[in-house]
Amino acid sequence: MADRHGEGPYVDTPLYLRPRADPPLASLLEDQTFLHALVDALGSPLNVLLPEAVAGNAARFRAVYRRHHLAGRVYFAHKANRSSALVRRLAAEDVAAVGVDVASLEELRHALSCGFTGSRIMATGPKDAEFLWLAARVGATVNLDSPGELEQLAGLVRRHGPGRVDVLVRLSGFESAAGHGGAGTRMLSRRSRFGTPLREAQTLLSALHQHADVVELTGVAYHLDTTGVEEKARALEQCVLFMDDCRARGLAPRAVDIGGGFGVGYLAEAGEWERWTTALSEAVLGGRPPLTWRGHGYGLRNEGGTVRGTAALYPAHRPTAGPGYLDELLSLPAPVLGRPTATLLLEHLHDLHIEPGRSLVDQCGLSLARVLDVRPADPESGQYLVRLGMNAGDMSLEEHGVLVDPVLLSRGEPEKGDREPVGVFLTGNLCLEADLITRRLVHLPRLPRVGDLLAFVNTAGYAMDFHAHRAQRQPLARTVAVERRGESWQWCLDEDYWPITPPGGTPA
Ligand SMILES: *Cc1c(COP(=O)(O)O)cnc(C)c1O
Question: What's the CA angle centered on 473, arms 471 and 478, to 5 degrees?
Answer without folding.
Answer: 100
